[in-house]
Amino acid sequence: MAEDTDLDELLLETEERMDKSLSVFDSELGRIRTGRASTGLIEHITVDYYGTMTPINQMATVSIPEARTILIQPWDQTAIGEVEKAIQKSELGINPSNDGKTIRLNIPVLTEDRRKELVKFVGKLAEDYRVSVRQIRKDVNHKITKAEKEDSIPEDEVKSTLKEVQDLTDKFIKEINVMLEKKEKEIMEV
Q: Using CA atoms, how far apart are residues 187 and 189, in angstroms rounded to an integer?
């Protein structure tokens, strides 16, 4: 009966690892500029705030007042210059405008060529994460077949566990494809 638990734990661990890959993929997609304002665009930007690197969303109110505008209102007005510098240094490629109390980021409309480049990029990114999920499957399948040889787990249990791992793999790859399709539509939307 101990082998059952080991296989169940292995399946649980597999699902957790695949879910983590999916979460990281989702967060990477959130950073990709689509011509629309999104708080995800600035989540990764950190500001040197009194010697501590602090994410913008932990030191300011971030809102989307219009479809192509991000408004950042630092809680400490003395930090506005540092927030502005951090945005300028980031790979975002947007010039912030500062009125002394808030920072406004106007998201420019993407050109058709840039949209196509971004679609290619997110396609490659999705493939990287599909490969990651498949690699997790390969690692787990190896552990299962090794356990079968060493612990003499019944063949039918091994087969059913391998099938469950494949089902998990299919489920997560399908989710990656759905997220990719949604992001591509978002990018191509004018």
A: 6
